[in-house]
Structures are given as structure tokens and as C-alpha cells.
Amino acid sequence: MLFLEENLELMIQEAGFVAFLRTIGIILLVIYGMKFFAKYFLPFILVRVVNKAKKRAQQRNTGYSQTKSDIKVGETIIDKKPNKKQSSQSNKVGDYVDYEEVD
Prior knowledge:
The chain starts with a helix and ends in a 12-residue tail after the last helix. It is mainly α. It is built from four helices and no strands.
């Protein structure tokens, strides 16, 4: 138990001027490190992410652009969806229930 108490005393430091300056120095290093990272490395990372997103969008739209390229200029194409018979149940949303107000 004595060993644990001695180590605990060594880990606890008094709030002194040197500890305060060290803390301020660490905070400033972190802030300037983040500014350096954001200034020099973040643009490269963002360009790479945007290029990947652009490639994915182009891959998704390749099927759409190929069908449009088959159409000749001035040609009119009308696409119609087949009419589906509507069942009587689709028009009927719910049952109507009469009610009386109770005083």
C-alpha cells in the first residue's frame, strides 16, 4: 500500500507557474498544428474526396446517358407506362363509422 501512495503523490502536481506555461504551450501547439494541417493537407484530401464522388456519380449516370445518345436529333419519343387496373379496394381507404356524441 505504501508504494501506491508514493506513486499517487508523485502523479499529483501542484498548480504552479511552470505547469500553467506547459499547459498553455500544449494548447498553442495543438491549435497551430491544426491550422497547419488544415492549410496544407486538407485541400489535398478534399480534392481526392470530390474526385471520388464525381467518379461515382458518373458511373451511376452512364446508363442514363447511353440511352439518351441513341435518340436522334429532332426525333420525338413518348414513353407511357401501362395502365394498371385499379382494384375496388384501392379506392376504399377505410370504413365509415357513425358515432353519437355523449353528453
